[in-house]
């Protein structure tokens, strides 16, 4: 018996990194996963996995989100994982960078929750898991100005939804990782002027001496998606190898 048998779970940003690991872990535990992303070719790699159906979805596109919400007849868990990392201080962040990050990282979750929550309310049960970060209201991190602002907003959004709908059988939590070894982290390191130095810098801030794996973060998603966490809501769940302690 799987820990998520019979649950329908919608996942955003499922084509790579943590979203992909979460989608695979959910399906292994018996969930019916609707794995969404804008990257069709990466998404297709998930097609062979039992329990996973794929769907193109741009989380900044209100029309696409509403269409998907109409199609999905039952939803137990909504996982809002899509996010973008802008590198720099406030002085490096143009208005277009600010707007882009807030749009992908925060407005997307506002749109997704607004579209799927009515169905959860009808069902009198639902579970929302948002992706935040310890680079947020939890920890000041250099060169992550708009990113941290957006991830702090995700914590606020999470607590607010949890508080407003707790009496309706809805839970809402967020996951706050430290540094996770994903394709986009590798790309950011490679794109820096001195990749070797950048890798050392990223590793130096890890008290464990290593990054988290996407699969380790996926384990936390499975717990939050399952009924094992029925008493957990409004919680920013930190998984950072002690970075923020
Ligand atoms: N990797 C880390 O160290 C780390 C740490 C803390 C939090 N996070 C957060 O975890 C989440 C996933 O990060 P990751 O590093 O695992 O993934 P990633 O950056 O490697 O991949 C992101 C995925 O999001 C998709 N995506 C981008 N824009 C989209 C859009 N508009 N609509 C739908 N999908 C879109 C991409 O196609 C890609 O598949 C992000 O919210 C990120 O901020 C990551």
Summary of the model, kept short:
With 245 residues, the chain is of the alpha/beta class.
Rg: 17 Å
Q: Estimate the mean pLDDT confidence.
A: 97
Low-confidence stretches: none
Instruction: Name every ligand kind in the structure.
Output: nicotinamide-adenine-dinucleotide
Shape: globular
| Percentage of residues in DSSP E strands | 15-25%
Which CATH first-tier class would you pick? Answer: Alpha Beta
The CATH homologous superfamily: NAD(P)-binding Rossmann-like Domain
Q: Which structural class best describes the helix and strand composition?
A: alpha/beta
Which key terms come to mind for this protein?
245 residues; alpha/beta; Rossmann fold; two-stranded parallel sheet; binds nicotinamide-adenine-dinucleotide; SDR_fam; 3-hydroxybutyrate dehydrogenase activity; NAD(P)-bd_dom_sf; EC 1.1.1.30; NAD
Which SSEs are present, and which pair or pack?
Elements: E1 8-11, H1 17-28, E2 32-37, H2 40-44, E3 52-56, H3 62-71, E4 77-80, H4 95-123, E5 126-131, H5 145-165, E6 170-177, E7 180-181, H6 183-191, H7 195-204, E8 212-213, H8 214-225, E9 236-239
Parallel strand pairs: 1-2, 1-4, 2-3, 4-5, 5-6, 6-9, 7-8
Helix pairs in contact: 1-8, 3-4, 4-5
């Amino acid at each position: 018996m799987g820990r998520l048998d019979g649950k329908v779970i919608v996942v955003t940003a499922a084509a790579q990194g943590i979203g992909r690991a979460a989608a695979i872990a959910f399906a292994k535990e018996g969930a019916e996963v609707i794995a969404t992303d804008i990257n069709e070719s990466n998404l297709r790699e998930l097609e062979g996995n039992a329990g996973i159906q794929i769907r193109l979805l741009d989380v900044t596109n209100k029309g696409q989100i509403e269409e998907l919400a109409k199609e999905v007849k039952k939803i137990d868990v909504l996982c809002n994982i899509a996010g973008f990392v802008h590198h720099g201080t406030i002085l490096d962040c143009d208005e277009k960078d600010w707007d882009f990050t807030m749009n992908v990282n925060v407005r997307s979750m506002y749109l997704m929750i607004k579209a799927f929550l009515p169905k959860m309310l009808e069902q009198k049960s639902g579970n929302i898991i948002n992706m935040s970060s310890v680079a947020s209201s939890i920890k000041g991190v250099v060169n992550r100005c708009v990113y941290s602002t957006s991830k702090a907003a995700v914590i606020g959004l999470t607590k607010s939804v949890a508080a407003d709908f707790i009496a309706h059988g809805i839970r809402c939590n967020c996951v706050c990782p430290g540094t996770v070894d994903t394709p986009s982290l590798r790309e950011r390191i490679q794109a820096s002027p001195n990749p070797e130095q950048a890798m050392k810098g990223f590793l130096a801030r890890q008290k464990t001496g290593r990054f988290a794996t996407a699969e380790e973060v996926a384990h936390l998603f499975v717990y939050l998606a399952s009924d094992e966490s029925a008493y957990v809501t409004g919680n920013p769940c930190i998984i950072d190898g002690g970075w923020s302690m």
